[in-house]
């Protein structure tokens, strides 16, 4: 008996010793004592087990505590998932005051995502999360902790928490002259500053995108200049007076107090507010070089071609640089405030959002419908009445006509349309001047806010808004079946691309010379490139120009003019390069679209086409849109009322589907209409097969209306009840049979 107890106890204790740590000497000591004394009594064994279990119950097992300085333990989710959750939360409650942004500032996932974006801008290649080194993650964690502990300083030049992967400079071994140059001259924004800017942008953008007005379109995702032109074509056709305002002086810089007060209307997070305030107040070091101190650099006789480093991104190609030169005046200025960087456009929209809200109140206040007008004659000003892009030509002055205004803003430029007398436009302009003076301390006058009539043409985004009077023939059937044809009068809002602005942009890029009769100039930037590469670059430029003038009424004409300028410029370039003397000779050899090789030598075998077939030479693409018939038509796709970008529509749809009320409404709708959902139908099929072992398809009866959902459910229940009763009868008969056999 002692031997059996000893074996059982030893095996149990041996398994228990693996649970305790090496520091728990008391249980191990008891085990050793018990193993040495094999002749102990049963009472001693019971006392031993009682002491052992008492100690084990009172002992707390030590677990490994996660290291707060280990980046791998802090990254629990994906950064994109965290951003998506922020967008969903802010769109669910867009008017809620936000107070918990510091919690998102602590999320290392957002910092890693910001690091990936900045590295992509810095090196020109995307860095996946798995490619980020351990040292970079530790430096990123140090930067995050410095921001949270108020140890981060904007615009640091020598002391960094994290450095760019391209930066190989040893700052400790720099000379005093180089250190002085770094501290006193203009330098690009530090790498760590751009990471902090990206994190702040990812945190603040979801908060304000759900609050911004639907009448602002610049510096916002999913909205661009094309959206503005489509809104103008749809909603501004009934207005005769226009106010075009230039508030771009606000984009150059605003007082810090105004920016912070605009932020604190919706955000009550001290950490984020202080971080943005420090970015605005920290001075930016810029160097000014006087003309007398400029040293004339001697040009080398032979210019060496600059070779890019391995991790250095390529500069913008020539066609893209040329297209950026076509940016209209309204889209040319990009705000940059202090050390805010990419956060500056968002801050500008936050400040100008008060102007948008003020104008929306003025739109409601100004609206006075008239039953005698053909458009906007209902009490609801937002409802579309008829086709506003084809309104009947009626005078807009007088007390019996509708008075209405509309407003859009693109960056620092506003456009206001007024339907009513000019006196209303003058009153609105006066109120707008007073509002800008009181709110933004911006001094405006009548010249900066001119009132123009639609017949003179209003320039906006390099497109001219004007009115065309048309006389369509109206045919209708009168009483008695008589067909009557009458001449009607109507107006169309014409949105045409400005040829004058197009010539101005070409002149700025040195493509043309002259105003009235522009003469193409050779683009010597492409002198050393091959004909195939040059044609390819210009075709890409023409493709983006076709897309830019997509919604212009004169799209064919303006694109054909651009093609003429580009073709003439290339012809002059090739004439100078291949010494062909004139453009006519270039067109004769290279054809109209310059698709034939200009350097082909005659008498050589094989010919150019044979070499092209063998892949020994580049294929030369001819210039596009050399004829007006090749230019695509203007896009007149209707612009829907209440338009939103695709990402906002997806967000709102997701929020609506996640709402329990939506599911309840759908179920009640199904019940009211006597329909059956697919889930309920499958459930009925499975239940019927389980109870009856027969697959009965009653969908046809439901569709024909023979049985409703209640009837189907009652049938299923009745069949199941019948089956239960049959089973019960069978079991009773079996029991009676067994009793009868037992008695026999």
From TrEMBL:
Q: Domain Domain X spans what residues?
A: 495-596
Bias-annotated ranges (Polar residues): 716-728
Region: Disordered; residue ranges are 716-744
Q: Where is the composition biased (Basic and acidic residues)?
A: 729-744
Query: InterPro entries, alphabetically?
Result: DNA/RNA_pol_sf, Domain_X, GrpII_Intron_Splice-Mob/Def
| GO terms under cellular component | mitochondrion
Matching entries from PANTHER family are given as:
NUCLEAR INTRON MATURASE 1, MITOCHONDRIAL-RELATED, NUCLEAR INTRON MATURASE 2, MITOCHONDRIAL
Its protein name is Intron maturase
């Amino acid at each position: 008996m002692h031997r059996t107890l000893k074996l059982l106890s030893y095996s149990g204790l041996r398994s228990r010793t693996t649970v305790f740590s090496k520091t728990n000497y008391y249980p191990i000591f008891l085990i050793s004592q018990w193993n040495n004394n094999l002749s102990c009594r049963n009472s001693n064994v019971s006392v031993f087990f009682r002491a052992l279990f008492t100690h084990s119950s009172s002992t707390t097992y030590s677990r490994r505590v996660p290291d707060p300085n280990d980046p791998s333990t802090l990254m629990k989710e994906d950064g994109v998932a965290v951003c998506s959750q922020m967008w969903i939360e802010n769109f669910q409650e867009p008017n809620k005051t936000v107070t918990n942004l510091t919690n998102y500032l602590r999320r290392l996932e957002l910092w890693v995502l910001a690091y990936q974006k900045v590295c992509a801008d810095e090196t020109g290649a995307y860095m996946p999360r798995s490619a980020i080194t351990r040292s970079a993650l530790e430096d990123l964690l140090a930067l995050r902790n410095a921001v949270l502990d108020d140890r981060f300083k904007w615009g640091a030049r020598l002391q960094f928490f994290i450095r760019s992967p391209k930066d190989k400079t040893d700052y400790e071994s720099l000379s005093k002259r180089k250190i002085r140059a770094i501290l006193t001259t203009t330098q690009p924004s530090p790498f760590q500053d751009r990471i902090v800017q990206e994190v702040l942008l990812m945190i603040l953008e979801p908060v304000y995108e759900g609050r911004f007005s639907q009448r602002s379109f610049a510096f916002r995702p999913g909205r661009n200049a094309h959206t503005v032109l489509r809104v103008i074509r749809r909603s501004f056709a009934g207005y005769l007076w226009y106010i075009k305002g230039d508030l771009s002086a606000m984009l150059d810089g605003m007082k810090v107090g105004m920016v912070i007060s605009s932020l604190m209307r919706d955000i009550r997070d001290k950490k984020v507010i202080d971080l943005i305030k420090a970015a605005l107040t920290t001075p930016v070091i810029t160097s000014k070089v006087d003309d007398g101190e400029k040293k004339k650099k001697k040009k080398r006789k032979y210019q060496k071609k600059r070779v890019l480093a391995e991790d250095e991104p390529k500069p913008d190609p020539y066609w893209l640089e040329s297209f950026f030169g076509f940016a209209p005046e309204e889209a040319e200025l990009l705000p940059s405030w202090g050390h805010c960087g990419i956060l500056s456009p968002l801050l500008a929209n936050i400040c100008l959002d008060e102007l948008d809200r003020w104008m929306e109140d003025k739109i409601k206040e100004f609206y006075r419908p008239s039953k005698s007008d053909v458009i906007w004659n209902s009490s609801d000003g937002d409802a579309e009445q008829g086709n506003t892009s084809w309104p009947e030509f009626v005078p807009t002055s007088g007390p019996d006509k509708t008075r209405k205004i509309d407003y859009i803003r693109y960056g620092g430029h506003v456009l206001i349309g007024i339907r009513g007398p000019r006196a209303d436009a003058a009153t609105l302009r006066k109120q707008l001047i007073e509002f800008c003076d009181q709110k933004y301390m911006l001094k405006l006058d009548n010249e900066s806010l001119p009132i123009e009539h639609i017949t003179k043409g209003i320039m906006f985004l390099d497109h001219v808004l004007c009115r065309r009077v048309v006389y369509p023939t109206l045919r209708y059937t009168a009483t008695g079946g008589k067909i009557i044809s009458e001449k009607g009068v109507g107006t169309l809002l014409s949105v045409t691309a400005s040829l004058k602005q197009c010539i101005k942009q070409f002149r700025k890029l040195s493509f043309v010379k002259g105003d009235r009769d522009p003469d193409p100039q050779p683009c010597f930037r492409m002198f050393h490139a091959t004909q195939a590469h040059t044609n390819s670059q210009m075709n890409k430029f023409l493709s983006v120009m076709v897309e830019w003038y997509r919604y212009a009424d004169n799209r064919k004409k303006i694109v054909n003019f651009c093609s003429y300028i580009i073709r003439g410029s290339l012809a002059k370039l090739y004439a100078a390069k291949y010494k062909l003397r004139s453009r006519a000779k270039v067109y004769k050899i290279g054809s109209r679209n310059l698709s034939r090789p200009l350097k082909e030598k005659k008498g050589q075998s094989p010919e150019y086409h044979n070499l092209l077939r063998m892949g020994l030479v580049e294929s030369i693409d001819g210039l596009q849109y050399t004829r007006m018939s090749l230019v695509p038509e203007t896009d007149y796709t209707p612009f829907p009322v209440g338009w939103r970008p695709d990402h906002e529509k997806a967000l709102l749809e997701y929020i609506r589907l996640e709402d329990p009320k939506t599911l309840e409404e759908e179920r009640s709708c199904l019940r009211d209409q006597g329909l059956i959902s697919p889930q309920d139908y499958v459930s009925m099929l499975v239940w019927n097969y389980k109870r009856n072992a027969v697959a009965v398809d009653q969908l046809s009866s439901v569709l024909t209306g023979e049985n409703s959902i209640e009837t189907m459910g009652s049938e299923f229940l009745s069949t199941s009840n019948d089956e239960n009763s049959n089973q019960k009868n069978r079991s009773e008969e079996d029991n009676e049979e067994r009793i009868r056999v037992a008695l026999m």
